[in-house]
Amino acid sequence: YLKLVELIPTADTDPEVLERMRAFVERVLGKGAVVAKDTPNFIANRLGSFAGMHDVRYALEHGYSIEEVDALTGPLVGRPKTATFRLFDQVGLDVMVGVAANLHELAPTDESRDVLPAPEPLKRMLDAKLLGNKTGGGFYRRGRRDGQTVFDVLDLDTLEYRPAARPDLPVVAAARDHDDLGARLRFLLERADEDRGARYLRDTLLPSLAYAARRVPEIADSLVEVDHAVEWGFGYQLGPFRAWDAIGVADGLARMEALGVEVPAWVKEMLAAGHQSFYRDGQVYSPLTRSYEPVPVDPEALDLDRRKAEGGEVAGNGSASLVDLGDGVLCFELHPPASAIDAALVELGARALQELESGRWAGLVIANQARNFCVGANLGEVGMAAYQGLYDQVGQAAKGLQDVLMGLRYAPRPVVAAPHGQTLGGGAEIVLAADRVVASLETYIGLVEVGVGIVPAGGGCKELLRRIVAPAMRAAPDAPPLPFVQRVFETIGLAKVATSAVEARELGFLEEHDVVTLDADHQLAAAKREVLDLADAYTPPAREASVYAAGRPVLAALELAVQTLQWAGQAGEHDGVVARHLARVLCGGELSLGQWVTEQHILDLEREAFLALLREPRTMERIQAFLTTGKLIRN
User: Fold this and answer.
1) Which of 40, 233, 430, 494 lies 20 to 30 A from 22 at CA?
2) Cα dist. 376→192, 228, 447 in Å?
3) In this predicted model, what pLDDT tens digit does every residue of 522-567 receive, in sequence order?
């Protein structure tokens, strides 16, 4: 899953061989290559060993609990949810301790090597084989209690597990008010003298930044290589020098010196020369030349924020932007709050259609560069309107989304979607409306609406029928349609989510001509190329009766299957209500026999079922529970 590959040339390595390896790693494997020097543990594990063992030692010596440390050192500071102790469990305590011990042995001149040997509690865990996930328990142990999955935490004194406690860290909630990571880090540092949680972060973060600076140029010549090694190797938002820039180099230096943390001379010389940051205007400071050098730019890596900063935004609101990618290609960038479709996103989608119809553009890319492509409709908006009885308003909103997606499907210029990460519900329906898809390998796509007691209403049912059932019936008109309709019924009714873009093709969300890219940094450029490739001879799809509706005979078979599951206790009463609505949509309603129907026929049925289910009290209970707890309930 992680992007990093470290390349370690020796003095005898032909530079051309190194560049061929870098090209192979980046363009074929889709990884990010950094060039490291041949020193113990190279870059990522050199810095990671120090930070991991230093942070654990500090926690043990100052009485911080496992839960407190993990609440502080995860997404709050731009790191993965594994934070500190969960990371030890995931990697394996024996591996983490072994890598640090390797560094302690092989780096005798490292001024900070004394933090690397395992503290006594970790040694006792090793002896007890409490190594983490691979042995069933480490700092945490997963189990079930009262029918619920729970994570118990290890008491480091007794090596017995106890229920995990919610840490009392008010600074965490206060820091989350700062959306910008740099502002959040600065806020935490400012609170360190008065707040115990902020003090832990200050006293662990600053030593790690200084340690990285002390290792240059020992482990690598370029600050960019060091930052990329940490960002790509550990999933951090900011490597050490970008993080130091975010808090302010001069301010960080002053705080380090106040703590007695050693800072290398080159940082002080950089500041004394009037240079206030490691990065500026596409350049990076070099400790070797004492000057700024260009940051290497990957021509295949398009950056939407940079395009907008350069004046490329054609239109925008709080949920979406239209961005000029150059060469006549427009990008519909999705950036709604919580990655969920709302009214503002649909509004800008209609503007994107107007732009395509104007003749100004070769085509459109639908993309973003957020963590997830789109997780579906904004359930808060939908649930609140339904709770207030504003069903006409909800229906109009659903019709608006359908109209925009149908507009994209039949647009006069090609539309290419570039999904990645979670692409769920309405997000999947956006992808299904495109002429072509350039998907990241790590794309988790599915129609998951049944989990909250509704059915897809943006064309998801219609599109899977068109892609799975219709081709089968064209190829063999006399074949029984039930197996193909049942496949769609199970995909939507069981809320199946593809675990990769490869599986998305098997489930019918991607077609054979769609593209899967390994390098997320190159996805936007690849999608732009697809638009240009399609543009020259592009003809929109014909509007015709392109969906096969199987009618009452298949509907009866699906309803019987649902009833059988209920009799067997495998589906609840409300599950049956939702499933029967879904079956009716997929069979084209009350048609007496199978026949070809228009896409709009199925869309109308989707919207009708969606609104009917919103009137069900148990659907509203499911939506409310999900909005409140983030979990699905079976009521």
Assistant:
1) 40
2) 39, 32, 9
3) 999 999 999 999 999 999 999 999 999 999 999 999 999 999 999 9
Beta carbons of 208 and 50 less than 8 angstroms apart: yes
The whole-angstrom separation of Cα 380 and Cα 70 is: 29
Decide: 363 and 329 in contact? Cβ < 8 Å. Answer: yes
DSSP states along 250-301 = HHHHHHHHHHT----HHHHHHHHTT---SEETTEEEETTTTEEEEPP--TT-
The one-letter amino acid at 240:
P
**Cα end-to-end distance, the chain, whole Å:** 36
* Tokens 């406690």, residue located: 165
Cβ count within 10 A of residue 299: 7
Distances (CA, A) of 443 to 440, 459, 510, 516, 572: 6, 20, 11, 9, 31
Structure token pair of residue 577:
């209500």
Does this model's pTM top 0.70? My answer is: yes
* Run of H or E residues at 555: helix 552-567
Of the pLDDT bands very low, low, confident and very high (cuts 50, 70, 90), residue 30 is: confident
Residue 166: half-sphere exposure toward Cβ, Cα within 13 Å: 2
Residue type, 207: P
SS3 509: coil
Beta pairing class for 140-145 and 148-155: antiparallel
Q: How many CA atoms lie within 13 A of 606 on its CB side?
A: 25
How many C-beta atoms surround the C-beta of residue 301 within 10 A?
Answer: 14
Long-range contacts of 556-565 (CB under 8 A, 24+ apart): 557/482, 558/485, 558/486, 558/489, 558/583, 558/586, 558/587, 559/583, 561/486
| Amino acid at the residue 121 | P
Q: Which residue has the tokens 């019987």?
A: 560
- For residue 420, what are its two tokens? 């990645």
3-state class (DSSP) for residue 148: strand
273 Cβ neighbours under 8 A, 6+ residues apart: 290
CA 462/CA 601 separation, integer angstroms: 9
Burial per residue of 64-75, b for 16 or more beta-carbon CB atoms within 10 angstroms, e otherwise: bbbbbbbbbbbe
